[in-house]
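Treating backbone geometry as a discrete language has practical consequences that deserve illustration. In the encoding step, the backbone of a single protein was reduced to a row of integers, each denoting a local shape. The amino acid sequence and the backbone structure tokens for this protein are reproduced below.
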Amino acid sequence: MNQYETVFILTPVLSDEQMKETVAKFEKVLTDNGAEILNKEAWGLKTSGFYSLVEFKAEPTVIAKLETAYRRDEKVIRYMTVKLDKYAAAYAEKRRAKLGKKEEA
């Protein structure tokens, strides 16, 4: 399995509940296709949209299914999925550990 990060931007006209439902829908696409979610982050900017980042491990075939789901959803303004090489994966792991320490404090 490869490690990926996907970032997508949702339209700013959605309510908080609609944003949560949409993010959960894309996470379900991943988990239903055998992906392992490693990290989730979200940032909300009412002027430019709601940003969500999901870091996951999956087979390459899952990416096509995820991006098809993005294209079919009119709430998604933009999306980008990248495969992490070993250096980016190591950096992401350090970043997750750092964020985990901040949340504990």
Summary: DSSP finds three helices and four strands in the chain. Helices lie at 16-32, 60-72, 86-104. The mean pLDDT is 91.
